């Protein structure tokens, strides 16, 4: 399961990367079209980040289930399981904090004055 989710995440990441690169770097796209694409680009970026966390958590749990034998042999919780659990929980907490920060409108970057005059951007918030 970990490998399939991970492969899907890599494919979606490269699709996101190429679409963002062509949309926002090449000068052929108009500003209104870029403004239309930006929310979808941001949303898919957050979704990919969440799937990266799921992939890492599944990989850690598969590693713990198949390679840590101390629980099945000794019937005690060993340090390997504690570290695996701590790393998995840390990844989930980190991604939750990143998503909360990105979705909070008070912490969004405001356009710079030269960006507004150059592109004639309007604040749609």
TrEMBL record:
**Key words of the record:** Electron transport, Heme, Iron, Membrane, Metal-binding, Transmembrane, Transmembrane helix, Transport
Cofactor(s) the protein needs: heme b
Q: Which GO terms describe its molecular function?
A: metal ion binding; oxidoreductase activity
A UniProt-annotated Pfam family:
Cytochrom_B561
Protein's UniProt name: Cytochrome b561 domain-containing protein
Q: Where in the cell is it found?
A: Membrane
Q: Which InterPro entries match?
A: CYB561/CYBRD1-like, Cyt_b561/ferric_Rdtase_TM
Q: Which GO terms describe its cellular component?
A: membrane
């Amino acid at each position: 399961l970990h490998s399939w989710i991970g492969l899907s995440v890599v494919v979606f990441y490269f699709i996101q990367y190429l679409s963002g690169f062509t949309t926002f770097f090449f000068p052929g796209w108009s500003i209104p079209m870029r403004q239309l694409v930006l929310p979808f680009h941001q949303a898919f970026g957050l979704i990919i980040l969440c799937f990266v966390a799921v992939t890492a958590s599944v990989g850690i749990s598969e590693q713990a289930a198949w390679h840590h034998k101390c629980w099945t042999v000794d019937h005690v919780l060993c340090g390997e399981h504690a570290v695996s659990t701590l790393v998995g929980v840390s990844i989930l907490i980190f991604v939750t904090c990143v998503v909360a920060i990105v979705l909070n409108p008070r912490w969004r970057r405001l356009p710079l004055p030269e960006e507004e005059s150059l592109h004639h951007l309007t604040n749609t918030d």
